[in-house]
Design a protein that fits this description.
single chain, alpha/beta, Rossmann fold, 2 domains, seven-stranded mixed β-sheet, 10 helices, 15 strands, binds 5-S-methyl-1-O-phosphono-5-thio-D-ribulose
Length: 344
């Protein structure tokens, strides 16, 4: 595997993360030493992006073990299970959170309550597997997705579905990283992504670090660029994909898909299988997070609108399957009607 573009966290008996709220101004490292720390880091978006949320939550269960190992075996098991349920409530939309916690919960439920050290080793091994599997899946997404990127193409992406949102390679950005490694001349248009500005702050930071040419646009400019034939392909990430291919991703993704369809531009969703929720038939069943109104009302702590203005702040929207040209996964590039075959 080639060089990993970004390292958003690491494990040294504690979880260390880059505080993504402060990028690109400051690169501050935070330590997460309790399940409460992990819950807050996810809820307050110190870390974000579906695959990274899942991975950090998995290590959060290891942290819960370390916090609670002083208790009796019976109590330890209860405490970890309570923390797993608590972590599940940190954010509702990204499926990777539920996927990873289910795997960790299975390790706890299979434990015979005899040997604490054995439980610790198994929890750590499972969290490491979730980490390594994501790294490998995202790299393969890059290899498959690269086939869609021709020399001199302009790619539009939304939010941050890069290394910072995963274990290092990204999903939507992985094909871009591989295309660059293969020496292709490419240009990335980055939607700034209001209200939290993951595009302008995080995607631009990553692309800059990896010397990939990019241009930031505000979210209302994509249609104009498409009409001027400046965009060859759109690639976005996903927070949760239903069995029929309906996809929840950062608010604004649906508008881009509609625009891309009108302008006959291919629109791809890049995601590992851990983002696919095989328990739900379609996008209507995906819970959509609504976040604090101040994300919209304030910029740099200052009101940009009347203080008492009413706002609506859904963090995600759902793009229907028929607007999605294909899904770039670690198993190849799939059409929406091929997804159900992956379900197992
Ligand atoms: O609210 P965020 O920043 O967690 O939203 C992130 C996204 O919508 C990403 O596109 C998605 O999680 C895919 S990340 C590889």
């Amino acid at each position: 595997m080639k060089k990993i573009p970004v390292k958003p966290f690491w494990w040294r008996n504690k979880i260390y993360i880059i505080d993504q709220r402060l990028l690109p101004k400051k690169e501050v490292i935070l330590k997460l030493e309790s399940a409460k720390d992990v819950y807050n880091a996810i809820k307050e978006m110190k870390i974000r992006g579906a695959p990274l949320i899942g991975c950090i939550a998995a290590y959060g269960v290891v942290v819960s073990f370390l916090e609670n190992k002083k208790f009796s075996n019976e109590r330890l098991k209860d405490k970890i299970n309570q923390d797993i349920n608590f972590l599940r409530t940190s954010r509702p939309t990204a499926y990777n959170l539920f996927y990873a916690l289910k795997r960790m919960e299975k390790i706890v439920s299979d434990w015979d309550k005899k040997n604490k050290e054995k439980l610790f080793k198994k929890l750590l091994k499972e969290a490491e597997s979730i980490y390594k599997e994501d790294l490998s899946a995202c790299y393969k997404i890059g290899i498959y997705g690269n086939k869609l990127i021709k020399n001199n193409m302009s790619i539009l992406t939304h939010c941050n579905a890069g290394g910072l949102a995963t274990t290092g390679f990204g999903t939507a950005l992985a094909p871009i990283y591989i295309a660059k490694q293969k020496g292709k001349n490419i240009h990335v248009y980055v939607d700034e992504t209001r209200p939290v500005l993951q595009g302008a702050r995080l995607t631009a930071w990553e692309l800059e670090k990896n010397r990939i040419p990019y241009t930031i646009i505000s979210d209302n400019m994509a249609g104009y660029l498409m009409s001027k034939k400046k965009i060859d392909i759109v690639i976005v990430g996903a927070d949760r994909i239903a069995k029929n291919g309906d996809t929840a991703n950062k608010i604004g993704t649906y508008s881009l898909a509609v625009l891309a369809s009108f302008h006959k531009i291919p629109f791809y969703v890049a995601a590992p299988i851990s983002t696919f929720d095989f328990n739900i038939e379609n996008g209507a069943e995906i819970p959509i997070e609504e976040r604090n109104e101040d994300e919209i009302k304030k910029i740099n702590g200052e009101y940009i609108c009347p203080k008492d203005a009413r706002v609506f702040n859904p963090a995600f929207d759902v793009t229907p399957n028929y607007l999605i040209t294909g899904f770039i996964t670690e198993k190849g590039i799939l059409k929406h009607n091929e997804i159900k075959n992956l379900g197992g």
